[in-house]
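[User] At your convenience, examine this fold.
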Amino acid sequence: MVILIMGVAGSGKTTIGRALAASLGWSFRDADDFHPAANVAKMSAGQPLTDADRAPWLAAIRAHLDDKLARGENAVVTCSALRESYRAQLLADPARVKLVHLTGDPALLAARIADRTDHFMKPQMLASQLAALEPPRDALAVDIAPPPEKIVAEIRRALSLEA
């Protein structure tokens, strides 16, 4: 199984993804690691990505998901996956790729982004992400307000992955 954790910037994808993977003993990959250098430079300059910019990024994430599934390996992977068309590219096998949507109040998201000092996502880009977000119909939606350990426990419970 692969758990794909999605959400806008500041939703805690990396924090929750790492904690969930560690609690399960599974591998973890952050979608940011799949971005070509040109995408990182563009976002660092405060410019939103276009669909053309995202194409190689989504393809690289899909290749990673396909590899994990082909090997029969469990993994947790993050990706903003804001639009239905992006998720359609990523979710090859919905029976084995479970989508978790981290959701939260825009003020909390903005505060989290503002607190970051080491990330290329700029606070002013949150509005464009929220505008682009097409909430998924078939995902486990999880509120980001509780502490990470509670969120991880909720995901594990909902996906029948309790210890």
Q: What stands out?
A: Residues 51-71 form the longest helix (21 residues). The longest strand covers residues 97-103. The chain has a mean pLDDT of 90.
